[in-house]
Amino acid sequence: QEEKIFAGKVLRLHVCTMEGAEWLEEVPEDTTVEKLKERCLKHCVPGSLEDPKTVTHHKLIHATSEKVLTDTKTVLEENIQDRDVLLLVKKRAPALLPKMADVVAEEKRKQEQKAPDKDAILKATANLPARSVDRSVTHHNMRDFQTELRKILVSLIEVAQKLLALNPDAVELFKKANAMLDEDEEDRVDEIALRQLTEMGFPESRAVKALRLNHMSVTQAMEWLIEHADDPAVDAPLPGQAPAEAPAEGAASSAEAAAGPSSEEGGEEAKDELTEIFKKIRRKREFRPDPRAVIALMEMGFDEKEVVDALRVNNNQQNAACEWLLGDRKPSPEELDKGIDTNSPLFQAILENPVVQLGLTNPKTLLAFEDMLENPLNSTQWMNDPETGPVMLQISRIFQTLNRT
Q1: Would you tell me how many other CB atoms lie within 10 Å of the CB of residue 295?
Q2: Cβ within 8 Å of residue 237, ≥6 positions away
Q3: 72: domain range?
Q4: Average pLDDT, integer, range 74-85
Q5: What are the residues whose beta carbons fall under 8 Å from the beta carbon of 275, sequence distance 6 or more?
Q6: Alpha-carbon distance 240 to 286, whole Å?
Q7: 291-298 vs 318-326: helix crossing angle, rounded to 10
């Protein structure tokens, strides 16, 4: 009777398994979780307690709190209430430890796939002949390629001029070509940008200089004008740039030459007129150095003339021009105007190409050659042109073919 009077409270618990079995389990609140687990296993897996590991391989989980119940604690200590739901779950078997043979095999496989270290590379390549590439020689070869291409263009221009001079309409064609060059956008200044700066109160000539120095950017030009407001040389012309009057005079002279005697008055006079037009066209294509690069190189202590020469040789590339000034200065500016040997296999192969022969009779091809001669960066534009592109493609292929042989 005393045991009944002082007995603990009996709880009715709802137990479920992963296989779907469900039942009610009545246990006193002082029952340990391990004892409760044994009773559950007797109910759902008869005869399983013969293996002592069966109990340790299962666990009870409180469904509401998702807490794994500790075997050594009582139901009361785990704060389990009447009618709570418990889940009986079999523990996952621990991963088997790998066999020593498997570990050795895996380590050996990793070592075989590992990249060789520096010592192993040197040992394996000790008997190979050294093939170090001299970067200066590579750069020199690239420079030779540009020089050779210039020579080809110079000689092709001479051939094109002779062929076009035989055309009865040559004077009229080159009057139009001359007019096209007069509209060269490189000499133009963005009128809207110029008006914005002049409306701010900056002088027009100074605003033009600032825009040319800053690639027609109004914001950068304004910053440059404010920064150099007190500079005594702010109104000086840009280094290497012709005064504004020179192009106008050249254009007037070109117009006069173009309006000269027609080919009907005599073949010699027509040829002289064409020669003058060719000279005017060539003069308009004179090299224009990048003003920023000129200023930057002159600040290093170089003379303006040699800076302009360096930029001309290196196609306005400031870093290459600096290397040219500090190096052997090859090729010289004089070499740029020399043509290729007309008896060389390369030039003969170019002249024998039918596409090149047909292209040399087109005035646009001559203009393309002149433009690329003085502005190499425009070569992409002419390569994509439907009239001049095939000619440039053939010249490039012939050069690359003979250069490899």
Answers
A1: 14
A2: 209, 243
A3: 10-90
A4: 88
A5: none
A6: 11
A7: 40
Tokens of 75: 């139901």
Distance CA 232, CA 254 (A): 36
**When comparing pLDDT for 400 and 178, which is higher?**
400
Assigned token pair, 71: 């075997």
With CA atoms as reference, report the closest residue to 270 among 164, 344, 368.
164
Those residues with Cβ within 8 angstroms of residue 54's Cβ, 6 or more apart along the chain or in another chain: 41, 45, 48
pLDDT at 164: 77
d(CA 85, CA 87): 7
What is the three-class DSSP state of 59? strand
- Is 266 a member of any domain? no
Q: Give me the residue label for tokens 């009865």.
A: 168
User: Residue 248: inside a domain, yes or no?
Assistant: no
Pick the most confident of 10-24, 109-123, 251-265, 361-375: 10-24
How many folded domains does the chain comprise? 4
DSSP codes of every residue in 258-279: HTS--GGG-HHHHHHHHHHHHH
In terms of residues, how long is the chain? 405
pTM: 0.40
Does residue 331 sit in the same domain as residue 341?
no
Number of Cβ within a 10 Å radius of residue 396: 13
The dihedrals phi and psi of 240, each to the nearest 5 degrees, come to 80, 5
Which element (helix H / strand E) includes 61? strand 58-62
Query: Beta strand 10-17 with 85-90: parallel, antiparallel or unpaired?
Result: parallel
Which CATH number covers residue 197?
Answer: 1.10.8.10
pLDDT tens sequence across 308-331: 888 877 777 788 888 888 888 877
How many angstroms separate the CA atoms of 238 and 243, rounded? 9
> 332: closest CA among 313, 305, 317, 315?
313
